[in-house]
Amino acid sequence: xxxxxxxxxxxxxxxxxxxxxxxxxxxxxxxxxxxxxxxxxxxxxxxxxxxxxxxxxxxxxxxxxxxxxxxxxxxxxxxxxxxxxxxxxxxxxxxxxxxxxxxxxxxxxxxxxxxxxxxxxxxxxxxxxxxxxxxxxxxxxxxxxxxxxxxxxxxxxxxxxxxxxxxxxxxxxxxxxxxxxxxxxxxxxxxxxxxxxxxxxxxxxxxxxxxxxxxxxxxxxxxxxxxxxxxxxxxxxxxxxxxxxxxxxxxxxxxxxxxxxxx
Length: 263
Ligand code: MN
Hints:
L-fuculose-1-phosphate Aldolase; alpha+beta; globular; 8 helices; binds manganese (II) ion
């Protein structure tokens, strides 16, 4: 299909890092929140959600219009001093010349669109991607631990916004806003040929959801080879999500110990 393509950089955002700081840092975030964000990076690597790419952010505890996200680097290597504060426009306020992630607009636009969201995980985890490229294979909850996925996770088609020739990256605010619209009020949104983004009302919940999005994808891929799949009903997704949300801290504690090499 031949359509005219929109320039993904049409809003003036630069693909080149580092980005210039805008604004000034406000009150320092809670050190415990920073520490948890570092741990979240390491957990998501250890659990196979992030590799050299992908990122996790958390909303600033003292400035809800801002969020915290590592500088442009492999998540496994993130330490507290690598965490940068970003404004609601997705631009850093204290990068001080350090490179930042090209796809930071995933985070900024979801935080703008979803006041309930306190943390965001963007990943390229391998088991999920097939469901983003096979329209006849919708991604849905098939396990109680994946109940938050619901009965049909949305898939973001970047061609609808950026035309036929984009690099598939969410590299400006307009693309981030389009992704946030596709996510709507859901917990996870697939991104065609790219990956997925999971959100939560806490860092722990977002990490939990990112891990179980990947696990649900593995189960579903195995199941469809055996025969027709019975997914969770709409009511089951809601009921199971309410129950399992109360159990998520147990997962965080053991994943943290694994990531720290203690078990
Ligand atoms: Mn990406």
